[in-house]
Amino acid sequence: MLKGSNTPVPATALHVEVGRRHGPGVPGASTSALLLAAGKVRSAADVVHRDRPAHPSGAVRHAGERARGPLAVETLSVDLPRVEAAIERIVFAVSADGGTFGQVPDLYIEVSDPVTGRVAARFDEVGASVETTLLLGELYRRQGGWKFRAVGQGYDNGPEGLAAAFGGTADASRPAAGRPAPPARPSRVTLTKSAPSVSLAKQGGTSGVLRVNLNWQARQGFSGRGSHRGGGPGDVDLDLCALYELADGRKGVVQALGNSFGSLHRPPYIHLDGDDRTGAAEGGENLTLNLDHRRELRRVLVFVTVYEGATSFAGLHATVTLRPQHGAPVDFALDECTVPSTVCALALITDDGGDLVVRREARYLVPERGVSPQRTVDRAYGWGMNWTPGRK
User: Fold this and answer.
1) Which portions of the sequence form the region Disordered (predicted)?
2) Domain 201-381 superfamily per CATH
3) How buried is residue 27: exposed, middle or buried, by Cβ count under 10 Å (0-12/13-18/19+)?
């Protein structure tokens, strides 16, 4: 699984395994499960770890740690039918001891059937660096069933950051002296359906620039359709775009079509860096906002269109990362596309008293016959612009 993605899991007893490579110079780590009601633990009893190995309900148990060759593996058992109705999510966190997770190789979380051993979910592309506590994944209720989400969100202030985020004290990840928890300082923020919004000001992003990156890759078995200009068969050309409305009411679009690349230092204070045809993680499409003029931006809708090489987003995996010059990066992955969509609303950035709030949209739209993707997203979000055909 990739960060931010989710998958259904059987609503039965499950085996959750957190593994990592151990050895000289590699920090130790400890795993905990937090049972959340309305986004918080109700008491210390809702935090299960190796020194408090069982939840009072019996729904979650920590079975200890063992060595498996070069790996150290912690296991937890989760009996989903026994989870209390008030519990909406079970979050699995891991805290490093004497280092950061950038020093811990081969970190993963895996959910499986304890009887058959069949793997229901596995997340091992965590990409950690300075974090000392990581939210690896979560089980959450969805339409009468359960799903697992690969989270990968980290904190650089250890168990205290986790405690501040979910309530309780610093023993949310491991036993520690109880003391007031300082505000959480996430090293990055992953937006999800259950937590779709974040304030840039609260992350420290109040000046400088905000860089929005889109990269993508074809899933195994994907075969793109359509013409290609440069590159091999199956190459897909996605275009990152932005609708904007300024504080004075002016509206417009930044996109490669019509060479409407915008400007960073004059209205609309948004600039499209170029037109990428590869989707490579180190490149992709990039859009930059000038946060020094954030009070002049009323709202910005970042969206993506399929320009050529595919008939929809189905079979593609795309990831969006917003990197403020100051503050924590914000990222999210797009869900699987199950409709014939050629345009997807990614993120809505709105003014809130001079602060900019980023909301994950990840909304696939299906244009009507004869209606352009740009006009489709305009109608969906009520921008009210007049559109003419364009080329790039």
Assistant:
1) 170-202
2) sav2460 like domains (2.60.60.30)
3) middle
Q: Where are the domains of the chain?
A: 6-187, 201-381
C-beta of residue 55 within 8 angstroms of C-beta of residue 35: yes
CA distance 346 to 331: 11
Q: Is the dihedral of CA 7, 118, 124, 139 positive or negative?
A: positive
d(CA 237, CA 228): 8
What pLDDT, on the 0 to 100 scale, is given for residue 128? 78
Place of tokens 């924590």: 328
β-strands 89-97, 28-36 pairing: antiparallel
Token duo for residue 219: 């899933």
* Pairing label, strands 297-308, 13-21: unpaired
Phi/psi for 199 (5° steps) reads: -90, 125
End-to-end CA distance of the chain: 35
- 202 pLDDT above the threshold of 90: no
Length of the chain: 392
Task: Give the helix/strand (H/E) hosting 373.
Answer: helix 373-381
142-187: per-residue pLDDT in tens?
Answer: 889 999 999 887 776 656 656 666 766 544 444 443 334 444 455 6
Which amino acid is located at 22 in the chain? H
pLDDT digits (tens, 9 = 90+) for 25-48: 888 889 999 999 888 888 889 999
Matching residue, tokens 């058992």? 77
**Same fold across 6-187 and 201-381:** yes
112 HSE (CA, 13 A, CB side): 13
Residue 314: CB partners within 8 Å, gap ≥ 6? 336, 337, 338, 340, 341
Write out the E strands in 129-226. Answer: 133-142, 145-155, 189-190, 197-199, 209-218
Q: How many angstroms from the chain centroid is the CA of residue 314?
A: 19
Q: Which of 240, 238, 293, 285 is nearest to 263 (CA)?
A: 293
